[in-house]
Amino acid sequence: MVKNLQDTTILHNGVKMPWVGIGVFKVENGEEVINAVKAALKTGYRSIDTAAIYQNEEGVGQAIKESGIPREELFVTTKVWNSEQGYESTLHAFDESLHKLGLDYLDLYLVHWPVVGKYKETWKALETLYKNGRVRAIGVSNFKVHHLKDILADCEIKPMVNQVEFHPLLTQIELRQFCKESNIQLEAWSPLMQGQLLNHELIVKMGQKYNKTPAQIILRWDIQSEVITIPKSVKEQRIIENAQIFDFELDPVDMEQINGLNLDKRIGPDPDHIDF
């Protein structure tokens, strides 16, 4: 059982990745992101997820520096944006991200979206970065089963992580099964459906049963579903609350009830129909 914020899963290359991290999507660079990340680190979070397109890598780097936490205790993820995809441009984008973060290496680098005609070249660049020891693990984001099969057909190194939209209304059963069989760790973005699930009748009711908030119920469901989760918040109280999910366990019946909420409903774009 996952016991605390530092508990990890082991990726297929042996690297340990925390089950829970802080996401900084749409968090403004500067004071807002610095304060959010510092609050998370103070609470005990050790995993931080950003992306080039979020335009807050400098703030994340600043918070890491100011926290005084040894670099090797942290797990930092960023992603290459669609316009930078391709072999050379990805290598350049990686350098840029590393420079903004003020780090010597990354823990996880992801291909942000499967840009048709480009993501395989992008993947080759990630393999190069990995082989050169500049990143400890590499993966993809928003890849469906057919995208993963396409990568797996001729990659040298298979993705360690696939970060996708995942929440009780989008349970991604086929993708989860495929990733499990392929030993690719699934990770959830927007686990709380950008707050839209916090008033869901069943989840509210479950919160009352376990004496937990709806957010805590959903994040606990993620962990018990063996999906890494990175809830985003800028409020210290919420950041602390999101971490209080290790002192209870959802029973199998409740897990099934939440699984049963699936509607294949997305709040983000469908990776097959995104306008790049």
Descriptive report:
It is built from ten helices and ten strands. The protein has helices at 31-43, 57-67, 87-101, 119-131, 145-154, 173-182, 201-210, 214-224, 236-242, 252-259; strands at 8-10, 16-18, 22-23, 47-49, 75-80, 106-111, 135-141, 161-165, 185-189, 228-229. A hairpin with a 5-residue loop joins β1 (8-10) and β2 (16-18). The mean pLDDT is 97. It starts with 7 loop residues before the first strand and ends in a 17-residue tail after the last helix. The chain has 276 residues and is of the alpha/beta class. α1 packs across α2 (57-67), α2 crosses α3 and α7 (201-210) crosses α8. The chain has one domain (8-195, 226-236): NADP-dependent oxidoreductase domain (TIM Barrel). The protein is globular, with a radius of gyration of 18 Å. Helices cover 39% and strands 15% of the residues.
